Write a sequence for this structure.
């Protein structure tokens, strides 16, 4: 199978023009098939402040009322997405910016209201991925750049970017040999949270279970790792958690971050 | 050659939710290959007012400074485009929203500064159209929905929607049998501007030259007709000028608007 990199960049890179430009330059130079997923929450919150739209969060997730939906549709789908696309085009990377609504690439369902009404928030699963169209686009040499938005029933829906990256990776794992890369602010998963040099370079499910049983990992990294192993269990070949500036090393054999495999 | 409809909708329809929904429903039901191009100037101006970004025009064209570029990128490329795409998806039309930057579909050049500095405005021509990728997308059953934005040198550029419609039609006329449809607020080109029933149903170049020589046409329609005949001269088979609500008739044989041919 052809290799495919599914790469998520976080807000800290988007918010730093020099870091973003350097990251996109590295991304553009990857020769294999690739997909980029970006966030944009801080930029949306700043514009929301100007427009008098309050940013509300519960359990770290944004509450998306109608005004907030318009805000994130503009900022994620318009401003951030198109600036990334124009920059990549200038680097000879044939980026094409999309949301899950475009080409019905990711069909979602509006999150049901239980204790909390998250508003226009989209829940997604790998069955909602339009694998045929995405594969065709990748085979045409197009590089999809996803804004964290999906759709259902004629409405856009705000959707977590990490989840989009996972779901795309799982959905495409039958067609491609996928490495899912989460770029975050550390070099990788650390054995000792106070020692940036203590990166765990390779983590299997067995090793992870042993570390978990011994409570040897920092709480903050656990949701990321659960997410990563859920992807592995669902057919994704490799997940890598690392720093944005290490992208090119982390797409090669000599990875610097934490490589997660079965 | 396969038939292709390239359809431009104007601001008066975008600004009226009932008219827009009805128009999109008609658009979704067209069975042939199709492309939609939309504007969004009034919505951008309203959001600009909220953000303290003044809308400036010279000769009917917006001056696009850096703040205005961000504004139109958000509104055209994000808000308006994605709302149309989500609505069309709900009508079983596989819409995929794009700007000229996406997939390098329309490469532009920044308008040179002569007497007037239009700022981040894009000039385009049919050579800048990525015919191969657009044809591939159409052949995959995808329906491109264009926001009026293009790109050059890593920057988004604000671009007239009528011009995008013309340039796409010309660029694709070697691959498809194109009917370019401009939806505007009247039934068609009128013989007598005071009589809405006086639609000229068919206009050839010869007839147009005769009418022009006799000063028999209203000044307002002349730029549209020049644009239309420029498209015809460059290989577009048919141009139709008509009302949005007549879309389905105007894509058929029994056209209600003004059909322009060689």
């Amino acid at each position: 199978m052809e290799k495919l990199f599914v790469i998520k960049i976080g807000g800290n890179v988007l918010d730093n023009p020099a870091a973003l430009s350097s990251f996109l330059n590295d991304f553009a130079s990857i020769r294999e098939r690739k997909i980029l997923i970006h966030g944009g929450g801080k930029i949306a919150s700043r514009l929301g402040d100007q427009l008098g739209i309050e940013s509300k969060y519960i359990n770290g997730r944004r509450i998306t009322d109608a005004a907030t939906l318009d805000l994130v549709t503009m900022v994620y789908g318009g401003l951030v997405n198109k600036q990334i696309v124009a920059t990549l085009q200038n680097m000879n990377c044939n980026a094409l910016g999309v949301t899950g609504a475009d080409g019905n690439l990711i069909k979602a369902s509006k999150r049901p209201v239980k204790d909390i009404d998250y508003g226009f928030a989209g829940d997604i699963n790998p069955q909602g991925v339009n694998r045929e169209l995405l594969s065709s686009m990748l085979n045409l040499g197009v590089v999809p750049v996803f804004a964290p938005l999906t759709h259902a029933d004629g409405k856009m829906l705000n959707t977590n970017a990490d989840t989009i990256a996972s779901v795309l990776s799982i959905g495409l794992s039958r067609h491609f040999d996928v490495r899912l890369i989460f770029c975050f602010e550390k070099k990788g998963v650390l054995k000792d949270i106070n020692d940036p040099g203590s990166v765990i370079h390779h983590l299997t499910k067995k090793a992870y279970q042993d570390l978990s049983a011994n409570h040897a990992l920092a709480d903050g990294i656990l949701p990321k790792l659960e997410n990563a192993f859920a992807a592995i269990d669902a057919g994704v070949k490799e997940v890598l958690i690392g720093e944005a500036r290490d992208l090119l090393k982390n797409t090669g054999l000599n990875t610097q971050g934490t490589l997660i495999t079965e």
Observations:
- The interface with chain A takes residues 50-51, 70, 73-79, 81-83, 85-87, 89-91, 94-99, 101-104, 133, 136, 140, 142, 149, 151, 153-156 of chain B (CB under 8 Å).
- Residues 149 and 158 of chain B are 5 Å apart (CA to CA).
- The domain at 2-184 of chain B is CATH 3.40.1160.10 (Carbamate kinase).
